Known about the structure:
Elements: E1 3-6, H1 12-21, E2 31-36, E3 44-46, E4 52-57, H2 58-61, H3 66-81, H4 85-88, H5 91-99, H6 106-128, H7 135-150, H8 169-185, H9 194-205, H10 211-219, H11 227-250
Parallel strand pairs: 1-2, 2-4
Antiparallel strand pairs: 3-4
Helix pairs in contact: 1-3, 3-6, 5-11, 6-8, 6-11, 7-8, 7-9, 8-9, 8-10
Amino acid sequence: MDLRVTGSAPPSPFLSARDLFETEYDLSLPVRVRIREDPDERTWTSHPGEYHVLNISRQAATSAMARELALHEFAHMHRNERGHPSHTQSTDEALFLALSGRSVERHKLAHCYQIANHMKDIYADDITLTLGPADKLVSFLESGLAAALADRPAPSRAGFERISPAADPEITVVNAAFALALVERHGLVGEDHRLYDLAHAAVRDAPGVGFEAFKRRFRDLRNDPDESEYRKALVDATRTYATATDAQAAD
């Protein structure tokens, strides 16, 4: 793999990730790692044509998760090169099919894109989880969900107290479903793991979203769907979320 790192971060985590990735997989196109100064910059991959680009904040690139984040993005690149439907299906097209004729608030549309990203991440992590211990990933999922539950505002009305943050409790449920789907898909934790307690706390705040249904959707994604099957799964997931959150808002 031709790998080049540009920006103010040491290249060692990316070189280590490359060496581990190449024990089982390879990439045909070169990889350019671009370190961003914005600490809020989300780690993401683009495919401009003749090479892949891994964009990552300097904060993430110098964190304890740097190697694991790089492995995850290499897996996305591998799925893209192999033409896996999860990475070739246009998200815009699927969301248009799912939400046609429906008025959707901007923040809920962003949630639908996040659901699409979760489905891509399932297939990327099917690769990364063959490459080594999953302890860091499980801790990462746990800390992310705990952080989403940490900001507890005052009760909004008598007898009702939010368990998850006032902002976007519905997508917190979906994020919890994704985390548990991933660990159950690969048998990473037992039923007494703290992730389950965190997920139950999130569900109490938005019970109408359908946590168990979303967990099954993510967990049971078939390894090698064809384009039509994957498009249907993505359309159904986003349409279900839009319908469920509309009903929750009405309640």
